[in-house]
User: What shape does this take?
Amino acid sequence: MQITLIVAKAKNNVIGKDNQLIWKLPSDLKRFKNLTSGHHLLMGRKTYDSLGKPLPNRTHLIITRNPDFEVPEGHYAFSSVEEAYIFCNKTDVERLFIIGGGQIYQETINSCDVLEVTEVEASPDGDTFFPEIDFNIWMETNRASFPADEKNEYPFAFVTYQKIKS
Assistant: This one.
């Protein structure tokens, strides 16, 4: 199973505030949809709640401390990341996307194979942060940069990092 972490983060590593996105970047949302469609998404319960409903054409794996948490049919809740990984291995999931939030990113970054990062040229206030990327572990393999425009409020870059195999 390939584990890919996908995130949009500011220069100061802010990824959210009050369980909401903090910028308007339709290009990032389009890329997210294109990359994750047809795959399994692992997320914390707050991230799941912020979506409002399951995203189409994706299987949601939600990490929650609430043993009575109910998910729609075809989606799954787990009490730990490890339980979700075991489920994915047993069900032959080929590619798993980690989509947040901050605590889930912190817990999973070292078990990922690929980081798909949208680097946003902004330093907003926020209450949720992405962990520092350790460049002894991660190597940038692709970058595409874009200016702000009438739809995207900040300049941004789509950056792919591959784990350096030891």
User: Anything to note?
Assistant: The first strand starts at residue 2 and ends at 10. The two ends are 19 Å apart (CA to CA).
